[in-house]
Queue: 2 jobs
Job 1
Amino acid sequence: MKQEVESKDPPVDAVSARCMACGSDSPRHVLDIDDAFSLVRCGACGLVATSPPVPPAEIGRYYPPSYYGENNRRFNAPLERLIPFFRDRRGQAIEKFVPKGSILDVGCGRGILPALMRERGWEAQGLEFSETAARHARDELGLPIFVGDFLRSPYADDSFDTIVLWHVLEHVPDPVAMIRRAHQILRPGGLLVIAVPNFESLQARWTGRHWFHLDVPRHYHHFGLGVLRRLLTSNGFSILDVSHLSLEYNPYGWIQSLLNKLGFRYNLLYDLLKNRSARSLPDPLRAAPVQILLTLGALPVIAPMSFGLTLLEVLLRRGGTVEVYARCDK
């Protein structure tokens, strides 16, 4: 399979911004995504970024209502029923590192995790970036939700025992500022939980621009574990644990990435798994009937293969997504 190829000299139009992690202006071209976007790697610290980055004032147009789905329900009913199960596993993982206390879920969506943690005896709050995304958590679940920028959130220093940035860090233009803000409002010894797609994974390297978890341009940055470790340790955190096993994300990451790599319509299966309000194709059966049949025909081969590849990723410590648990040192 084709892997990413790093050239010595980036195209002029790929060099659009200084590295948000270290300030270097020495990016190197990594991978072309399409005619509009590519990936560049900082020559100093290794952080990979989308180039050109979409200005924050314009990124909203890449999050249409279909991105969230009606009432923040993105998937078909059978898959929606699995979400509380995975959130419960997330809560159990958190409680391995810290006792019950106060928790903030940044990018909390419908509020399933903070609601669950509240049931487990935590003082739970959430943060969302839009009123649409926050509505269910605030109005239906009665959770305290701040709507707005995490960097400008009203929380006082040393407010929380745990902060969760679950597939959030890649969506923000300044990940270093996010980590520093988390350090500021965590109590000494508090826990920071981060999950991100792993650009050093086998999925990323073997499927290149077809990798399901790239999600350009919504993802401003693409983290390898080494870069993420350095960002955390240089901003007041100690790494407690790293997990490369995610049954929620990694097997499906392989399935969709391999289908994309084989030339099927991009993320077609993912679209089929969504409910109508979240689909990019309003009527996929009419729009791509042959592609759907071919996709379904390939699944009996690709699905079992994906679980084998997921196990291989774990053994090699190259999971498609990684979870990092870090202690706040003050």
Job 2
Amino acid sequence: MVGVEFGARARGNRAAQMGARQAAVCAELSAPNSEANEAAFVQARPSTELDAEESMAEFRELVASASGVVVAEILQRRPHPDPATLIGAGKVEEIAGIAASTEADLVLFDHDLTPTQLRNLDKALPCRVLDRTQLILDIFARHARTREGQLQVELAQLDYMLPRLSGKGKLMSQLGGGIGTRGPGETKLETDRRQIKRRIDHLKEELESVRRVRKQQRQRRESVPVPTVALVGYTNAGKSTLFNQLTGAQVLQSSKMFATLDPKLRAIELPSRRKVLLSDTVGFIRNLPHTLVTSFRATLEEVAQAEVLLHIRDAASTYGEEQKTQVERVLGELDVLTKPRIEVLNKIDLLDEHERDGLLERGKGQTSEVAVSARTGEGTEALLEAIDRALHIDLVLSVEVRVPQQEGAVLAAIEAGMIVHSREYEGNFVRLTVSGPASLVGRLRQYRLREE
């Protein structure tokens, strides 16, 4: 198990560098073609809040999401990255020996490699080398289902690979079924930079047309005052499970990272009887490749247009605060940090009773924080109430109306879309005290007696 941890803490742990642990992790992971990849897995921790072990655990989940089998892990500590190989010549020799003895197909780095480092490592190691961004792009390529998602992933792959084309050989093609062999599509190994740039321009034009379609769809939705609430959060925090719990939908929910790439929209009704659209979006991760944020901007526009953001957090995670920081960093790139935001502490069913009760009690009556279990449904009613309080569009109004009994359509609309607090019959009229969204209350203007 080889890893690289940079900085002052690494300088104080030179003894740990000499005693780097080696361990075999025999996790049988099924690949889409029923073929497993064996990967010698090198974790080089960038400068983040996570310590080396937590960073390694998260990267191991990424490898599992790419259907890989980890045969060795290496952890190294050093004060500075080596400009030629990131990890130093001695460690490269050690990794080469481990890769050869385990017959590994890949060496994976939990760190972005410069084009020079990638070329040098490719020459020195007996198998292919992929860095963190390439692995994430590969997972995105596996999970992209719609044409839009495939276009966005291909654009991100090409943007990232363009300066790294030298020496890639047939690995740019889409042949093969292992990690890192899902190339960006039409571009093949022999494609020169000019052709790739032409392809990038073409993809941007196609995505711009997707963006125009999305804008037209939003304009049609905006003609009816139905606000949007977007789910955002770290990958594998339980966004899709919560989406299914609130909407009754059957979107894919998986423990694998980045199972959701394409946005899903479903209507739900709040306790005030207001209707909102709930949007499930792609998960974020620390050091999310900038090419992905750029390529998925058309998808992430749903976040930018939302009235309220639900930041889904894993309450059972040991590094939840670090995950929160990473999500807020991406939200800052999207310029949406000023939007109303509710922190949803999910997976409370994994906590002990004392912690769960404490979180539930702390969230009572709050707008900014709610504790839920997306799996069991506990706390979802409080979450819907919090969304109700956070929404400032189509406000809830209380009115008193007097409606002729023969106006059955009006009375049915009141029953279907408003909360009836009192009802009295006065001859051929029904006197009602109701509360509901302003858009519906406005239709009752001719029957209104007073308004609060």
